[in-house]
Amino acid sequence: MQKQNQPDTVFDALKINLPTPELSAQYCHTFSQWLFDNYGNDNVLMATIHGSYLYGIAHKESDIDCYVVTLHGENTQKEFITDNGYVIDIRCNSLERYVELLGYGAHQAVEAFFSPYAVWNKDSVWYPYLSSQRINLAKFAKKCLSAAESFRERAQLLPDKEEKLLSHATRLEHKVECVLDNNGAYSPIYKKFHETSSKIVQGNSQY
Prior knowledge:
The chain is of the alpha+beta class. The protein has seven helices and five strands. Helix 6 (137-157) runs antiparallel to helix 7.
């Protein structure tokens, strides 16, 4: 998705008071709740941490990816730096677009839907509709394998990013195997964080 500009006022609250990143499941819960509470849009239906933190493979130089679904609004992806120096990359979809993506089996949308860290707006009249979406895991598996193939092709062209791209490909392929082996059961978590959290030193905080 091409990144689009959105009024900075939407993100002003997110540029301050970011919970200090930790490599832990508890931080993923804390961050998702913070995102839901501070996104600056009263139409938020769901918010979750995403990317490497969701998958359980984040390290001290990982940025913080997240996914937000709103009732109305533009479909955007925006990256910004918080006041304390962390990089946050937010993907936002309207409800209409998000349901379309789930129907297509788009892997990032499906991962957000099944995120154990997701915070849902259960007070919304749209909650029963959104939370009861039926995911076509066959389409999802196809999208994952297609994305994995793309990552492997790009890895051949970008030697400096080869390790990261191949890691993404392996993770996606592994998820397809898990869906097939577990009769359709799915979790976006690839690796579990250690029980003992690892705080991120601010000096190494190019997230």
